[in-house]
Amino acid sequence: MSNAVHVPFDAATVQTAECTRSPAYPRLVVATTILASSLAFIDGSVVNVGLPAIGQSFHADATGLQWVVNAYLLPLSALLLLGGAAGDRFGRRRLLIAGVALFGLASLACTAAPTLVLLLIARFVQGASAAMLMPNSLAILGQSFSGEAKGRAIGIWAATGAAAGAIGPVLGGWLIDAGSWRLAFLINVPLAATAIALASRYVDRDIDDTAGSLDWLGGALATAGLGLATWALTEGSGRAWSPSTFVILGAGLIFSLLFLAAERRLGDNAMMPLSLFGSPSFVGLTLLTLLLYGALGGLFVLVPYVLIQAGGYTATQAGAALLPLPLVIAVASPAAGALAARIGPRWLLITGPVIVAAGFLLMLRIESATSYWLGALPAMVVISLGMACAVAPLTTAVLMSVDSRHTGAASGLNSAVARTGGLVVTALIGPVIASSGSALLSAFDVAAAVGAVLCSAAAVSAATLIAPAAKTRPSVQRL
Q: Which has the closest alpha carbon to 36: 88, 81, 97?
């Protein structure tokens, strides 16, 4: 669900991609990109509802269930920037079709997986293919439209993606209740087949021979660093901390330092240019994104799980319990974006996380005997209002925090950081998933309180590091 809240936004594509020719069937081009990206939006949210059923099917412990989520988030977080650069180098249409085809095949593998290990491998392939298709679906819109038509197309793409992420848990829950969790993965197959057919027929071929080489080393080091650190955190929180766990965590940190060294050597050609962090505002926005979306990612794994396991909800009901988030954001975000344009994004980025923190504290009201209307709903509405204050202003602030040469890298990195936050927090929620009965509710209360602290820290990072609107971009001169 948090994927639906943080829609990837490639500012370089939106602002600078040139439209070489208008598509003959513009509506079908938009439909193609929507279908392709909906694969990632739906899959990123529907699995959370299916965790209890998957756990029962494979007799999985907390660590296994954490990996069902993180096996997808890990390659998506590490390879998202590389996927966009590969589209520039080898052709966005080609990368889109390859990513969609691989995602469809991986979904079939998830459906037929006889063991948890094979399911996790298929989920990893899904994440890697999502890193290929998500940035390139938006880039195709950037190259196919110009002017106002581009803005309308991107708006439709973003709104539909958010709607797909919202519908996914409800539809997936219904399929789980009607048959099996395996049916939830079959949603992706007809979507993938249709997207491939449309892309092959209606999306123009494109290859940028002037594009530079890809940062393969950075992608490999980022994946190794995140993978080892995630494994250590998952094992430590889900089972027990041991000397080997700390050794693996240290190895992950070493790979992360090697990644930073490699990126420093490549300069502006790196997948994560370190020069971005010369802006205090960008550092503050990165911390805010990591903390806020980390808390949100953990919440949307735990809420359906707790409602099903402790509240007796069906999978459909648990999925529907999350609907206030996209609905409130869809209604309130335009007003927040307009307000950010008038007063600057800083105050909204301080206020929004504080409101979200209050919503997390309201989650403490959830008990096994508490109705949805008095327990989960008020908390979800407050969290939704806080996120509505932050989503649109965050995009604005990211673009304002760096110079025009780095807007694409900055916005892409912000999307990757949002998913990394969810990855890390999901790796730490093992004690909650491992609990049952009243202990599950107590552990969830602790997690909700920690989430409130993370959101409060996000607000502090915004208040202390993000510059006021008039000082956000040093290159802008006053008249």
A: 97
